[in-house]
Amino acid sequence: MTKRALITGITGQDGAYLSQLLLGKGYEVHGLLRRSASADVVGSRLNFLGVRDSIEMHDANLTDITSLIRVIETVKPDEIYNLGAQSFVKTSWQQPILTGTVSGLGAVNMLEAIRIVSPETRYYQASTSEMYGLIQEPRQSEKTPFYPRSPYAAAKLYAHWMTINYRESFGLHASSGILFNHESPLRGIEFVTRKITDGVARIKLGMADSLALGNLDAKRDWGHARDYVEAMWLMLQQDVPDDYVIATGQTVSVRDFCDLAFAHVGLKAEDYITVDQRYMRPAEVEVLLGNPEKAKAKLGWEATTSLDQLVREMVDSDMERLSPR
Ligand code: NAP
Ligand code: G4F
């Protein structure tokens, strides 16, 4: 029988790659679409991957449980992937209530809707390495204590613990992926990797002469979104729900990422980068480094795209997008 999946956050980076993966596996894919006055541009990532016309969209919002109940009753999904969130850490200090409402309570709305309408539906929660924040161990695993450092991280930690609570209290098949940073040509332009690759392309093409960034010493464990959505799917194919760290196991600084991206087009990062206080945060997560051993042992998952490949794919894509036709 054809499996049905419902994806929240389908218009985002991961939603697009997950849609492509599930369609390739023969799933019927449904997406939750929040109403926007810019409906003509929403869906550009799905168009980029050529999957927009294969998805059935439903008008709903994570903050409105009645809309979630209605969509679940209509779709009767075998699997729900909750990727919807206010996902930009810096904005979470400007909009802490909105972030808590969407990224924290939104997950509980979905868990509650599943419990009421369709308790046999399997659930994936998009948890995050940001929950480790002020890290308590040099390599973070499922057993590392959390120490969130932003309204975003605190909201996600609430959603994470509620997912565990709904699993233990009501027997839902609910799993969380604690995903470390993952990027792609479809990454939002406000995140540092995409800001860098877009900036490199603009400088190389003569459209800009410098790139202003914030903390160049922050270190992240960066992988490719295409690899990471495979781990989400694998979690929902397990007999027993659980939580998994998904990461590459390597960490590099923003400065290192810049060096790789500029070098790919034959330039030196130090000739173009400036530091601007506007891009600093009230509290910084200085370093994240994941330990993905459990995912390898239990899911048979590991990252397959190297950092070098990721950077090259992103720079090439931005060069193509910005080059005159
Ligand atoms: P993204 O590109 O920012 O996409 C976020 C999605 O959430 C968009 O589709 C957005 O819709 C949707 N959304 C926002 N508010 C909503 C609401 N009120 N109701 C329904 N949908 C709403 O994020 P991403 O990078 O794909 O990440 C996917 C998920 O994984 C997020 O939950 C993120 O927090 C989490 N995560 C990401 C990473 C990472 O490195 N990428 C790492 C760990 C965890 P619009 O298009 O309408 O704005
Ligand atoms: O790219 P970022 O904005 O991503 P951040 O804050 O790590 O969050 C991303 O990954 C999380 C997983 O760990 C997700 F949960 C979350 O939803 C999101 O996808 O910033 C990365 C680092 C930070 O330390 C930041 O201070 O880069 C530093 N940075 C330096 N200059 C900058 C800039 N970040 C941005 N966005 N812009 C800058 O100019």
From TrEMBL:
Keyword Transcription regulation recorded: no
Catalytic activity: GDP-alpha-D-mannose = GDP-4-dehydro-alpha-D-rhamnose + H2O
Domain NAD(P)-binding: 6-314
Keywords: Lyase, NADP, Nodulation
Cofactor: NADP(+)
Cited function: Catalyzes the conversion of GDP-D-mannose to GDP-4-dehydro-6-deoxy-D-mannose.
Protein name: GDP-mannose 4,6-dehydratase
Annotated source species: Fulvimarina endophytica
